[in-house]
Amino acid sequence: MNRPVGVWFPTIRAGTGVDRFTVSLVERLRSLGVRAEITWLPPHAEYLPWTVEAPAPPEWATVTHINSWLHKRFYDTSLPTLVTLHSCVHDSNLMPYKSVAQRAYHRLWVFQREKQAIQRASKITAVSAYTANSARTCFGSTKIEVIPNWVDTDRFFPSDDAFKRRPFRLLFVGNLSRRKGADLLPHIMRRLGAGFELRYTGTPDWFHVKDDIPENMIALGYINNEEEVAALYRNSDALLFPSRLEGLPLSVLEAMASGLPVVCSNSSSLPEVVVQDVTGELCRQDEIQDFVSAVMKLADTPNLHSEMSKAAASRARTLFNAKVVVGKYLEIYRELTMGRA
Fold first, then answer.
1. 117 Cβ partners below 8 Å, 6+ apart?
2. Which residue would you say has higher pLDDT here, 307 or 142?
3. Residue 260: CA atoms inside 13 Å, Cβ hemisphere, count?
4. CA atoms within a 13 Å half-sphere pointing along the CA-CB vector of 322
5. 315 SS3 class
6. Beta bridge partners of 320
7. How many angstroms separate the CA atoms of 137 and 92, rounded?
8. SS3 (DSSP) at 68
9. 62-92 pLDDT tens trace
């Protein structure tokens, strides 16, 4: 008799997209009748694991699913373990944008955690081909299956009154960091000037010289409610996303599902999501004028904006469909459960 699949997620609460990935996956699995549970660990479990009590896996669990950064203290290899790579911070392309402290932490601590997780894994997945290739280069592991992130198209969908706003309204959703190109936002918006507005998640405190923030940048603070985030997309004209490195960004998938053309960097995993001149504009990394020209092109060409909006929503529904993606994880859980029986 086959044992029913039960998936345990020991997860550090980091306040990132990985948290949202885990919560969403658990909700989807439960809706399919699969028992799934998160054991939340405090943020300092990432860098001070010995100060946090190690949880025991539930008796009903047949598979453990972890993020590659999790310390081995928090998962038991007596259960088959699925490791998911959400990004690869060891990518040489990211080095110029790291502080000395970040370089040391990633190399001396995170690298060792990920190496251990990959060596102990029963199965490895990555959220993009770019992330998988980076991990193969860094860790030498070749058996990595690509399963992309997904988007909830019942929650994120296009607005009926798209492209009726003036000024032309841009949106940036994500943590403010150099990796995500947040330092480029004031320069882009200053060149765009009047007639364009950028609303961004976070606070002006991140920008070191607050007086240097142009008036057409509006801080939204930190938003954790997905319904509020979905409403933001529906009340915007395009996503501005000059990120330098992404595993596979949920914000881009959500924007596309909401019918927003995406103006982003032609780097890392972003070309796997955004199709040039079809669902958005791919700009040369760090080239401020490229982003400015791409935004102005969308604002000045309503027909193009409308076509991209429809194509973006269609691509999100087709390729990043929750039912299809979660089904791939379920296949792995069943395979690992049967192998353990």
1. 66, 68, 69, 70, 72, 81, 83
2. 307
3. 29
4. 18
5. helix
6. none
7. 10
8. coil
9. 999 999 999 999 998 889 999 999 999 998 8
Contact predicate 17/250, CB 8 Å: yes
Find the CATH number of the domain harbouring 131: 3.40.50.2000
Reading across the β-sheet that carries 238-241, which strands appear in turn?
217-219, 196-200, 168-172, 238-241, 262-265, 280-283
Let me know whether 47 and 72 are in one domain: yes
Length of the chain: 341
Q: Which long-range contacts (CB under 8 A, 24 or more apart) does 142-148 make?
A: 144/85, 145/332, 147/84, 147/325, 147/328, 147/329, 148/248, 148/272, 148/319, 148/320, 148/325
Token readout for 161 is 């009154």
Question: Per the domain annotation, does 107 fall within a domain?
Answer: yes
Q: Which two tokens mark 258?
A: 């909401």
Residues 290/283, Cβ–Cβ less than 8 Å: yes
Give the number of domains in the chain: 2
Pull the structure tokens for residue 24: 């969403």
| pLDDT tier for residue 1 given thresholds of 50, 70 and 90 | low
Q: What is the mean pLDDT of residues 118-139?
A: 94
Interval 262-310: pLDDT, tens: 999 999 999 999 999 999 999 999 999 999 999 999 999 999 999 999 9
Q: What is the rounded (10 degree) CA torsion for 61, 63, 66, 70? A: 70
Sign of the Cα torsion 324, 329, 334, 335 reads: positive
Q: What is the pTM of this model?
A: 0.90
**Are residues 143 and 38 part of one domain?**
yes
Enumerate the H helices of the chain as residue ranges. 17-31, 100-105, 111-120, 129-139, 185-192, 226-234, 250-257, 270-273, 288-300, 302-319, 322-340
Pairwise CA distance, residues 45 & 50, whole Å:
8
Look at residues 269, 198, 204, 190 and name the one whose alpha carbon lies nearest to residue 239. 198
Whether 163 is in a domain gets the answer: no
